[in-house]
Structure formats: structure tokens, C-alpha cells
Request: fold
Amino acid sequence: MTDTATELKVTAASDIEVDRDALDNSIREFAEVNGDYYIGAFHKIHDATGFLPNTFNLWAAVLGPLWAASRAIWGMFWTFLILEVIAWVQIGRGWWGNPGADMSERAARQSARAQELLDKAAAATEQADVDRFTKLANNIQAAADKSMVQAEAAQAEAFGIMMTGFLLLLIFKLVQGLYADRVYEKQYSNWRIDPANTESGRSQSNTVMGAILAAAIGPLIVYKFTVNSSMALLDEFPEEGASALFLGEGNGTLFSRLANWMEARIDAAAAAGGDFFDGIVYGVRVVLDTLTVALNGSPWPVVMLVIAVTAWRAAGPRVAIFTCAAMAYTALLGYWEVAMETVALVGASVILCVVIGIPLGIWFGKSRRAYKAAEPVLDLMQTLPAFVYLIPIIAFFGTGNPPGILATIIFGMPPVIRLTALGMRGVPESIKEAAVAFGASKWQLLKDVEIPLALPSIMTGVNQTILMCLSMVVIISLIGGGGLGKEILEALQYAAKGPGLLGGFAILFLAMVMDRIVQGAFRREDQKD
Amino acid sequence: MSETVVKLTDVWKIFGARADEAMAAVKSEGIGKPEVLERFQCVVGVQGATFDVPRGEIFCIMGLSGSGKSTLVRHVNRLIEPTAGKIEIMGQDVSAISENELRRIRAQQIGMVFQHMALMPHRSVRDNVAYPLEIRKVSKSKRWAVSDHALGLVDLTGYEDRLPKELSGGMQQRVGIARALASDPEILLMDEPFSALDPLIRLQLQDQFKALVAQLKKTTLFITHDLDEAIRIGHRIAIMKDGVIVQIGTPEDIVMNPADEYVREFVQGISKLKLVKAHSIMEPLEKATGSLDGAPRADHGADLDQLIDLAVTTEQPVVITDGGTDVGIVTKPRLLRGIQGGKDD
Reply:
């Protein structure tokens, strides 16, 4: 141990010699082909202190993307393939494209029309007709001349376009030539760190792949943009032809076949599980009805008082004042009853989300495997646009408020599940271990340690779920859901601006009041800790 | 020091999916740690640990991180299941008992203190200390009384209603000790309890802890990576390396007769003043050159520190006695060598 320490010589930084041999061998191993060139180039890059490139790779400039492909620098390959194709399109447009084609066609049409009129004038017997036709013919001829001039001007521009194309191409080539070695040197650095996953050397297969890609992309694009009447096959995907190819002529399209099949499946499933789905709807309806009775069945002054006091106790006087103002707005504009229906819908959705979501979250927090399996489903629930699953919900559960609540649950449940699982996993192992060491059973561990410590995270999840349910509860008016959403949907159908905006504000206030009260309640909870 | 409270016999722990296969291979072929890793992708945590701890002893397990000491101690209350071997607590084989019985033993007979305190942040200090009793469904009034008493033992009276985060690190660890003592367990498992504290607080807590355990007569397994701490606290020390217990002995044993190079390196820097006792460096009376009349006398259990105090008062050697009879002498050169660690002349 001490031997190596004494042998270490201290050298001033300025006197340190670069060990070129090791580096050279490594670069040669990396480059495989043309090693000596890259050794020189990389040395120049390593020695450079400035910002500007100081090497020029002739082959990279000449071959462009093909060079990048052969060296497996795919980022550079794609960038310059696209840029060079753009340049080639310009060149093509100028060279064999006909930018004035539209105009010269029009000029020809106009000339023909003028000639026609002149013929008519010659054939006419009355002087008035002769004058009229001649005058018309002259006017059209003038327009034709003008079009001709424009066509020629466009044609003259073609040369300019072509030159721009060449200029662009030249610039791209120069840039590739100048930066190729630098980019390749980056790749070399990556290769040193991770030789297993970084491609090195020059490979036949990469070159061929690059050539195929370039050949497939370049000519088609250049053709499409430079030839005025391109092939129909390239403009639109021939789905009908493809359907005929798969199914035979006159047997409908793939789309209609698949749609019919799915419809039959869904009908069959809905019929088979009718009792099951009805049971779910019944369960949801019980929760909803209980809440509706409480909110809309009780006298309105009582409900208002309870809400105001809740706001005050949970979130303080300022939120209470805001809540009263919002309630006054809804009541004075006649929205009270529908607003309470919306609250009942949100309430029922949130209750169901929490009752189902928290146990699921606890399970997912404990079992990594279960969470892995559930994660794609949760992602799907959150990313699927609501419109997509409204249809299956109608098919299985019918229309109205309870199916609407089911749609809301699909959208609103993932946050509470996720954040419960997150909270559960965030409980420190040491505290759990301590509880177990003192003899806690699984249930005691959950009740005394895991849930209390995960509670802040769970509450954040509940809050998010409430807000997501509220946003969804408007959309379910599309499948017959009631409440404020229905008011807005009606206003939308008649493009009634006034009622629509007033209803929109009512929902906005509802959302703000709910958010404030819930957040206020959680904040007080936090302060207690 | 009579009855054996904790007894481990050839305990092995192998981590990994193929632990049983690896264990069988170890037993039959005697393969080592690197081979187990290579052939079965299993990590050997503890290799054949065997020791007894009698009632009232503080048994330190010392080793660097990764030596398997925390793993080993978790076998005692079966937070970790052994791959092979036998663990007995007061004569009862804990690897054979039911889940319920295990929980009862954990709650009543074993208290544990953790390096990172592991207090529940949402409970008051009192409720944290009372938690082991709460698990056993003891009534609240009883719980609170016991908890307040335990907090009194660690000088935390007056902090009962605070939350753990309001307390300093040292105080939090005292709460941890109070919690371990609350159910009046027979055994204390201390998993590097003082490692995360600053040195001065650590010293204080070590002394406080030692006094407390002596007073309460708890059998203690004390994990540490600090040899000074082990020597200060432990009646006996086990030194672990790579899952193997390299040496078990009293602090004096370990310092004076290290079992191998590894232990020797460890004990090099340890001060011998309080460790080495007169009887291990004394020479026979016959070696005395002059008269021993009027020479200072010390018991054979006196340590070097006390001998130095005596030696500086006189030119004569110190006479060592055992129950009133002179049994040997310690000359000054001998004393100086003793301070160096018992090197022979």
C-alpha cells in the first residue's frame, strides 16, 4: 500500500505529457476502418481550444447521410437526409418542375375563349353584336396576355429556385464535412463509456440500411413536390383497394366488417351480463339517491347553512364568505337545484372512487407486481379521452346519471390509487421494521404506521380526484347525466351565448368552492402535525 | 452471570432466490462466499454464527458496514429468518414457534433500538413509547403510566406530549431507548443506536445507557461499528468480518490477544489504559531486585491507569496483591510496555 504511494511522482499540470499511444490504439479500435485518418482528426479536435471546427471530412461532405449511416450516427443521418431532400426538392422544382404551369394553362384557356368570341364577332350580322363580341374578346385577350406574363415570370423564377437549391445543398455538404469528425468524436467518447451499446467502426449493414432509407424517402418526396400532377396512389392511402385485396371485391371494407363484429360482441356481452351490469347501476344509484335526497330534499336554507358553516370550520372565514357569494349566485340565477344535483353527482363519484381506490392503492403500494400489472390500466384510464368510453358505457349500463357516475369514476379514480400507492411506498422501512420488532401484526402495522404516514399523500390524491370528477361531471351530460352540465349542453346546442356563460360560471364557482374547502381542510390537517 | 438468555448455534443466512440450494452446497461441499455468489447468485450474510449471552451481559457485536452484524442481530427476534441454524431465547427455540407466539415474544421479551430512531412522527413521545404496550392491548391508563416511567428512566420527563420532530437527535434516541424499555423486556437489541449522533452526545448516552442497563439488569446485544464504543460498553465483544465472527472475548482479551491480522489492525489505535489489568502484565515476585517494603500496593484487577498513578509516586515497583497476599510486581519498563499493548522486551 505504501509502495505505490511513494512511487507516485508529483508533476506540475503544465509538464504532463499526453499519452498518445493508448489513445491512438483506442481510436483505431473504435474506427476499425481508416483508423489513421480519425486518429489525426480526433487529435486535432482534442487539441483545439476554439469553438470553430478545424477538421474537414471529405467523404462525409460528398456522401452526406450515407457516411453518417455507415458510421451509425443515426441522429446526423436523419437530420441531413431531411435537409438534403429539401435542397433537392428546390433543385427539382427549378430544373424540371413547371412553376408557371397553372398560369400558362389559364392563359391558353383565355386565348381560346377570346378566339371563340372573335369568331362569333365575325359571324355576327348586326353591328351591335360585332362590337360587343370584339370588345369582350379584346378584354379576355388582355387578361390572357397578363396571365402569360405571370407564367413567364414564374418560369423565370424557376432558375432562382434551382440556384437556391444548389446553394442549400452546398451549405449542407460543407456543414457535414466540417462537423462530421466532431460528431464522430462525440460518438467515440460515448463508446469509451459504454462500448457494449455504442456502435463503432464501419458496418456494411448500416450502410445498406442508410442507402435503402435514403432511396425510399428521397425520390418519392422529390417526385411528389416537383411534378404537378402526381400519382393518386401517393396522395391518399388506398384503403378501399386494400379492403378488396383482403376481403374480395364487393364484401364491404375492413372498417365496416370490424365495426359490425364489435357491435355484435358488445351486444352479446351486454345481454349476457345484464344482471351484473344492472346490479352495478343499482348500487351507484343508491349512493347517488342518498346524496340527492340530502342535498335537494332538505330545505334549501338548511343546506346553505351547513355548507357555509363547513366552509368556515374547514377553511376559515375568507373561504366562507366566498362560498356564500357563490351560493347566492347559483340560487339567484335559479341554478340551485341543478347545482345541488351536480354536487350530488360529484359526491357520489368521489365516495365511490375513495372507497374503491384507497384499498386498491394500498394493495398496489404493497405488491410491486400488482402495481406493475395495474399501471398500464391506470394510464389508459387517465389518457383515454372520455368520448371514447362513453359509448361502451352506454352499451353496458344505459344512459342517465348512474352510468355518468361510472364514466366519472373511470376518469377520476387513478389519482387516488396512484397517490395512495406512492404514499404507502414512501413509508420509511425503518419505522415499519420498528413496529414489527415490537410485535405489530400486519393489520396493526397498516392501521398504526402505514396509513397514518401515507395520509398526506392519500389526501392529495383525494383532492385531485375531486377536481377530476368535477371536470368529468360536465361531460357526462352527453350520455344523459343531469346537473349543470346538462344546462351547458343545451346552451351549446342552441349556441345560446348568455345562458351558456352563466351556467359556465356556476360550474366554475362550484369547482372553486369545493377546491377551497377541501384544500383548506387538508392544510389545517397538515398544520396539526 | 448464570443462565443463558440468548443462544445462537451455527446460524447461517444466505440471501437470494436460491438460498436453500446454496446452503446445501455450503454444507456438503464447504464452498466459500465468492463461490456461492458465482454459482447461485446468492449473498452470504451470516456464516455459522455461534454464541451464548448470559443474563445481564452486554454483548457487543462489532464490525464494519456490510459485515453482517445488523443481519445477525435481526435473527434474534426473527425480523430475518435464518437459512440454517438454531436460535434460542431463554431455552425456547424461536425458529419453531407460531406467528402469534413470535409476536408475543417480540412485544414482551425483546426491546429494540434502531440507528435511525424509527419513531412514528405522527404520535407524541408518550404514545411512541407506549406503542409496544398498545400492541399488546394494554389499557390506556396503564400504558401512559408505564410510558411516563420509562421516559423518566432516560431523563425525558416533561417531554411526554411533544412530537418526535421537536426533539434533538440525542433526545429522540432516548425516546427510542425508553420505548425499548417500556414493555420491560428481558432482552435489548441495540442496532447502532448511537452511530448517528455527534461524539459528545454519544459519550453521554453511552454512559447513561451502561448505568441504566446495569441497574435494570437487561441482557443486551449491542451492535456497533466503533470499537471504542464496544470496549466502553461491552462485557464481551464479538468481532465480525464478512459474515463470520472472527473473535469473541472480553475487551481486554481482544486488545491483548487479537485472533488475527484483521483484529490486530483494529485494536492498534485503542488506548490500553483502562483495559489492561495488572494481572496480565505482572511479573513474579522473585524478579524484584530490591526490597519491596513500602512499595505501593494494588489489586490484581487494577488497570494501567491506576498503576501509573501509583508508579509515579515512587522509585520501587508496584506490588500486586490478590486478597491481601502479594502475587507479583509491575516494574516501570513493564508498565510502559503494557501501555504499548503488551509487547515483549
Q: What stands out?
A: Chain B touches chain A through 29 residues (CB under 8 Å). The mean pLDDT of chain B is 86. The first strand of chain B starts at residue 4 and ends at 15.
